[in-house]
Structure formats: C-alpha cells, structure tokens
Amino acid sequence: MASLFRDRTLGYSRRDSTGAAATAASSCRYSTSSSSAALSPLPSPFSDLTPTLSVADLRETAYEIFVASCRTSTGKALTYIPTDRSPSPSPSPSNSNSSSSSPSMQRSLTSTAASKMKKALGLRSSSSSGIKRAEGSPGSGGKPKKPVTVGELMRVQMKVSESVDSRIRRALLRIAAGQVGRRIESTVLPLELLQQFKAADFTDQREYDAWQKRNLKMLEAGLLLHPHMPLDKSNTAAQRLRQIIQATLDRPIETGRNNESMQVLRTAVMALANRSSDGSLFESCHWADGFPLNLRLYEILLEACFDVNDEASIIEEVDELMDLIKKTWGILGLNQMLHNICFSWVLFNRYVATGQVENDLLDAADSQLAEVAKDAKTTKDPAYAKILNSTLTAMLGWAEKRLLAYHDTFDAGNIESMPTIVSIGVSAAKILVEDISNEYRRRRKSEVDVARSRIDTYIRSSLRTAFAQLMEKADSSRRASRHQPNPLPVLAILAKDVGELASKENEIFSPILKRWHPFAAGVAVATLHVCYGNELKQFVSGITELTPDAVQVLRAADKLEKDLVQIAVEDSVDSDDGGKAIIREMPPFEAEGAIGNMVKDWIKTRIDRLKEWVDRNLQQEVWNPQANEGGFAPSAVEVLRIIDETLDAFFHLPIPMHPALLPDLMSGLDRCLQYYVSKAKSGCGSRNTYVPTMPALTRCTTATKLWKKKDKTLNTKRNSQVATMNGDNSSGVLQLCVRINTFHRIRTELEVLEKRIIILLRNSESAHVEDFSNGLGKKFEISPAACIEGIQQLSEAVAYRIIFHDLSPVLWDGLYIGEPASSRIEPFLQELEKNLTIISNTVNERVRTRMVADLMRASFDGFLLVLLAGGPSRAFTQQDSQIIEDDFKSLKDVFWANGDGLPVDVINKYSTTVRDVLPLFRADAESLIERFRRSTLETYGSSAKSRLPLPPTSGQWNPTEPNTLLRILCYRNDEAASKFLKKTYNLPKKL
C-alpha cells in the first residue's frame, strides 16, 4: 500500500478518485476546498496492497461496507428538526430507497453540544458543523440542501454521489430480502453486489465494467492476496478464482442471479471465504478481514471524520459517525486495540499532510497513543505486534527526523509543537522497546530508561549538527576578516558562538526536554564541550609553541569552559551524584591542559630515544667482569646517566605543572629500565633450563640405554639452545654474574635518583605542600621489582648450571659409580669450591649470600638425584649408608666453611629433604618393603590390595612417598629387594 502513497504527487488529494470512480464522484454536488489538493501524507505503515486497487476503489468498497454494516431489515428514516427551523420536508428520493439503513444511519444530526470525543482529545471545534456545511453546499438543483442524517453526512464525507449511494442501498435491500435473518458478516458483499446488478443498471457500459472489475479485484485482494488465513498454493478454489479474475481483463463476466458464470464464481468465493483451520464452519465470511487490507479500508473510513472543506479539522458530529464506523469491525475483523492504532495513525498522518500547523491534531494523536500503550501491555498477539511495530516505527521515524536536529526544526514560530512531537517520539519508542522488543524483556526493566535514553540521543545528535553549522559559520567569518589586522582565529570565534548556542539551549529547549530527561541542559553543554574540545585538541596538536593565536584560542576556550561547566552544575544540583556524571563527560581543555599535552609529547620523544638506545647498546654488550671496576655492565652506567640528564631537563622546562606531569615522566623512565632488565636477562635460562628430566626406574639394560640416550639428547639440546640464544660465551658463569651485579647496581641507583627527584621538586615554583604528601608518581614502581626478579632468576640459573652442567662429569658421571667406597664426593667438592671462589670474587657482596644459598640448594638436589635416579651403574648396600651420610656432611661443611659461610639455620632449611631421605639407606630391605606397601595402600586405597600399582615419578622426594621408597629399593643391592621387585613388577633381579 505504500506504493499508493508514493504514486501520488504533491498536488493529489487523498480523497481524489480516478477511473470510473472519478466519473461517479463527479456527480457528487459537494465541492471541496483547494486545501484538500495539497495533502502530502506519509507512506502508510499498513504495508502494500495490490497495485490494481486504486484509492477510489478502496473508498467505494469501504463505503459499501459501512452502509452494509449499518443496515437493518426494518427501519425508518428519522428526520432532524432544528430548534431554529421549521420541520423539514420528507426525505429526498435518493433517501427513499434507504429503508435498509439502520436507525442510527437515518438519525438526524445534532449540533447543540460539542463532540465528547473532540473534547477528550483536545481538538478544536470547527468553524462550521456538518449541518451547516451541508446546508451551504449546492444540491442537484442548485438549491441549498436541507439538514442531513448521519448516513447522508457520511456519504458527503466520503465523496460518494447520490446515484452511487442509491444503487448501493437498493442492492443491500435486495440482498436483505433474499437472506432474511442472516447477519451481514456472513455475506461476501462484492459477490452479492455482482449478483444484484447487470449492465442495464448503470448509465453506460464503461461504468459497469469498471464497477464489475473493482468488485472482482476486491475479491482477489481479500481472498487471494491478503487472506484471513494463509492460503495453500494448491487450493483449487483459489486457482479457479484467479482464473476467473484474469479472464475478466479480456471480457467482463455475465452477472445475475442464476447464470452459470456467477454460480462458478460463487462456489470458488464461498469455498475460500468459509475456510477454517479445523474444518468447522465460520459464522462470518472472511473476505475483507485479512491484514493489511482491512486496516487500509478502515483507515479510509476514519479519514471520513475530517471536514471535506477543512482538511485539518474533525467534524463536530464525529461521535455519531464513529459509532457507525465501528459497526464495520465485524466485517473487517477489527477490535478496539486495532482501532486505537489506526486512529492514532490517521490523526498523526493528517497533521503531517496538512502542513504541520494544526497542533490540536498532534495533541490528539499523542493522547490516542496513550491508549495504544495500555493496549500493548495487555496482549502479545503476533499479528497485533506486527501492525503496532510498523505503525509506531513510521511515527517514530518522522518524529526523530525532526528531533535528531531540533535546532533546525523548531524556532519561535513553531516551538509550541515541540513538546508533543517529543512526547509522540518517546511514547512510540517506549512501546517498541518495552512491549515489543524481546531484548528488553530479557533484561531488568530498571536497567533501561527508554525516555531518558531517547532524549539523550536527540540532544547529542542535534547539538552535534548545530555545532557543525557553527564551525562553517566561524570559518566563513574568518575568511571574511582575513584582510583585517589581527583577525581572530577560527576557534576563538567558535568559542563565542558555542557559548551563545549553549545559552539558547538552556533557555528554550532544555525546559521542554527536562520533562523526560532531568539533566537535559547538562547533557547539552557536555555535548558542546566534547565537540569544541575535539577541535581544540586538533588545534593544539598542530602547534609546538605558544603563539599569539594559540593564546587567544586558549583564553576563549577557558571562558567557554567555565560557562558550560556553570550550566552543567546548575542543572545537576539536585542529582544524586551532584552532577559528577555530567562533569566526567567534560574533560578539561584549559590552557594548562594544552601545555601539558605538549610536554607529554616531549616526554614521549625522550622515552622513545632511550628505548632505542637500550636496544642498540645491549646488542653490543659483552658482560665482561673487567669492563668496569664494580663488575657491572657499562651500558647500565650509561642508562642511569641518561635518566639523570632527562630529569634535569624536565625540571628546567618553563611550565607551571611539574608535579602534575612528573608521574608521566617517571612511568616512562620506569618502563625503560624494566625493558633494559628484561632484555639483559632474556635467553640466560633459569633453574628449569639445567635440571634434567627425571629418568624412569632403572633395573634393566633397556632402561639404561634409554636413560643415556635421553640424557645425551637433553644435554645436546640444552647446550645448543644456550649457545644459540646468547652466543658462544654470553651465558657463562662469569657473564651471568656480571648481569646479576648490573641489576643490583641499577636497583641501588634508583634509590639515589628518587631522593634527587624530591630535591628537584622542592625547588620547583609550581610545587605545593600536598605534592610531597605521598610518593606516588615520584618513585620507580616496576623496575626495582624487575631487578629483584632478574637477580633471583639468574642466581638460580648460575647455581643449577654449575651443578648440572659444568660439574656433571664429577657429579653425575663420577659420584658412587661402581663401588661407593671408591667413588666418594671429594672430587665434586673440590670443583664446587673453585666455583664458590669465582662467585665470591665476582659477585657484589650484597647478593653473594643469595647466590651461595642457591648453589647449595642445587648441590643438594644433585646429590639426591644421584642417589635416587643415578642409573643402573649405581647400587647401594645397607652398609653404604654411612658413606653417604659422611659425604653429605662434607657437602654441608663446604657451605658452612667453619662458620665463615652460610648460617647453620639456612643450611638446615635447604637440607631438610636430604636429611629426611638418608635414613632410608640405613633401613633393611624388609622394612623398606613394608613401608612401601603401607604407603602405596594409603595412597591408592583398596585398589592396591590385590596388586601394588607402579607409582609415578613426581620428583618431590619424601620418605613416605611411594616413588621415593621404590627407588631406594631399586638401588638396593640386596636379595630381598631383588625378589620383591621381580615378583611385584617383574624387574630384573640383578642391577
């Protein structure tokens, strides 16, 4: 149906007719004003109808439905006798055939009281009532018409000629005579009308052909194109009806009561009109109650409530007319809810079509929407929801087109309409969101304030548009004054214009919008603040120093900001947060902020250069202990010097905001130092780099070969990896020690730098007492922790490298190989003491103790690994336990060093695991087996009673842990242990 509207030109009236209907309308003796030809309505939201049905076709069918709905089998015309006139003569001949009309149709009109409906909707009274209009209209004989009935008024309003009206009523009388007792809803009106007339009943063949085609096209629309129920494509009746309608395009069918063509047509039509989903018979015939055909017909009927001589005014007799229009609900399948939607649309559309000058119509549409909102909450019918959605979307689209740029839409001449347009937009949006949207139902309603959200959108959109226009205006002003001395910069002009716009918004628009958004003015100035701030930011980004133009712009911006903030604060004084939310939307753009941004750019440049320097110099660093007296890297000395110079340069900048910008500088320097530490330790490995993978249990030749192959592969891979990452010698013990010294040096110097920063800050003119109340922004936050973490990682890497890599030949390949008594720990201790001497001579004394402790822990781990996972070349008797204990005591003594080494409590802490495990070597095999059984049962429960499972290797040695006990047994050179292992796990008896 939208195409019907799109086909109209601006000069075409909604009530004009074409084709045969135009011929009929030409005989109507009631003229319309020229204003009716200027209607420019919106596209209908009720979807498209068949393009073969014109507006005139729909109007005539709607009138037929109206008259049929109001008829009665008996009835007598009631005449109206006005109080100031003599009784009127008998009805005219045209009305003498109207005895089929209901009493209400023939009731005389009254004008003694204003319409209750118009009063309820707030509509103005028209300048002339329907009675007076009819009296003043020329009749067929050029004489004034007499007072009219309601039915006569409807005929005039719908521009139906007297002859057409007479023919319709005559046909209905015949239909009623042939169907006594049947309700009109059980009649397919176009079909019955076709049966009542032949060509002889019309003035000419052309009029008859047009009339016949209209009724057939209406059957097509109601039964085929827009049926009440979905139509199966294979329906034979539908196929037959379609063929009949197509055939009439070439040759009109013969109508009449008993001819064959009419019987075929009746059979097809009634089969379709009486369809039901369950096969039962309907009391009503469904031929005009399919969506959107019924809505379009009803829309035309409702439009008849508007005065034909005053398109923007509803007639005074609307109450009586509306009562009759509602009688069509039975045929059209409508109800009060659908009426409310249609009537809201008709009122709204008429306001738009008549030039948007009659605000009463807009108010009435808004009032009617309130009823629609109530209806929407009481039903979830999908068909209703679809109509509701399309109608409200059309209304909302029209309203938002104006509200999203309301500064262009409204001025002093039409500002009165703005509250109602806003109300309609908000009401439509609320219904669409709250009652139709599934997303809204899934969320808590308290989370969504539809009205406030929409108004927020309107304010921001309109002000952004207005700001863009001010930008163009300011640029034009600058170009016009460019030849004058000292012309103002664009942003200085813009600041003045934005201030005036904010004042206008606060005085005119915000009081209206505040009804739906309590902080409308605050949102408005926040939007302007952001828009201007974005332009100011671009301006400042293009300057490198404070020029006269920059000063003018920044001063104008400062004044504008104060004005905008003042409006926001006053508007938000009663808010829960005191206006903080609005103020948060207004990031400051005063002069200090602009200067601060330039200083931040300076800081970023310095930090980027420093980071590039770190990358370049670390690639060249050799980590040689002789490169510096302190045993740390020269690159670290240079980095610290550059940082010191950067701090000096910062405090010499001529800015009034050193305390505010110092955190930015400190953060950048902090990240650079962290980056230095991260790069310096990358590729140096860690504890896990050197600890070998735990071997499986070893009591057979196959296991021995697997372990040796795996060990060889592991060492090859590890050595290759270390060499690839660091070069041939970059991760040797001495080089790692230099890196550790370097991290310690950086951490120490940071404390010195932090004290110097406080002194520089105290000497700064812009510093205040509160700037020294905390250390935030004046201390290095992440680089000290990075240094500590780097020292820890490399200290462990050095320790485990020495034990598991450098001393592997004397520990792994020498200790307890063959007979324990002939392969004691002394060779390993000698090499260990050499490495302790290197560490003592190289590493700073502040981190030396930590490194020695890590080396001790690594040596203890290596010692246990030899005892519990040393491979099949090692075997121990119960008597060997004393040798093992003595060797471990010698190992501890190396680190105690007669009291000059590590404290006893530190040694005891790290040796706990070894001391707990060593007593197992002293125990006999039977005792160990019993312990193993008990421990396994405790670990695996009843499932281990039938057969002891093989415990997995955890590497967490413990005298009560099954895997630890099993490994003691595997390395026990004892008959009882061998028998147990053979019987339980089928391990070889001999090692």
Automatic annotation (TrEMBL):
Low complexity bias spans: 93-104
Compositionally biased region (Polar residues): 105-114
Span of domain MHD1: 551-694
Transmembrane intervals: none
Region described as Disordered: spans on this chain: 78-151
Domain MHD2: 822-932
InterPro entries from the UniProt entry: Munc13_1 (IPR014770), Munc13_dom-2 (IPR014772), PATROL1_C (IPR057984), unc-13_homologue (IPR008528)
Full protein name: MHD1 domain-containing protein
Organism encoding this protein: Nicotiana attenuata (Coyote tobacco)
Highest classification ranks of the organism: Eukaryota, Viridiplantae, Streptophyta, Embryophyta, Tracheophyta
